[in-house]
């Protein structure tokens, strides 16, 4: 049939959870790697002003939302389509 949409089979809840968890692991690793760089840059360039705290808190809050999503806390809002 020409133009028919091809749908992939549902991978199952375990596979979805593993994919979410792997993505969160990458996000967490990137967060810690960049925070190490920012703290070191802050200590070397402007030790009297702790500006690294702002990106740490901002990105940390997004990381907390990502963790809640991985744990399934947003699944109560309705089924995914």
Number of strands: 0
Strand content: under 5%
Structural class determined from secondary elements: mainly alpha
Biggest sheet, open or closed, and with what strands and sense? none
Residue share in helix: 55-70%
How many structural domains can be distinguished in the coordinates?
1
Mean pLDDT: 89
Q: Your description of this structure?
A:
The protein is mainly alpha-helical. The protein has helices at residues 13-45, 53-70. It contains 2 helices and no strands. α1 packs antiparallel against α2 (53-70). The longest helix has 33 residues, at 13-45.
Structural descriptors:
81 residues, mainly alpha, 2 helices
Quick summary of this structure?
With 81 residues, this protein is mainly α. It contains 2 helices and no strands.
Which secondary structure elements does this structure contain, and how are they paired or packed?
Blueprint: H1 13-45, H2 53-70
Helix pairs in contact: 1-2
């Amino acid at each position: 049939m020409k133009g028919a949409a091809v749908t992939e089979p549902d991978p199952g809840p375990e596979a979805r959870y593993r994919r979410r968890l792997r993505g969160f692991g990458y996000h967490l690793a990137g967060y810690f790697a960049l925070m190490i760089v920012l703290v070191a840059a802050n200590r070397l360039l402007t030790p009297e002003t702790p500006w690294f705290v702002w990106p740490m808190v901002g990105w940390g809050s997004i990381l907390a939302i990502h963790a809640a999503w991985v744990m399934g806390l947003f699944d109560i809002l309705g089924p995914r389509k």
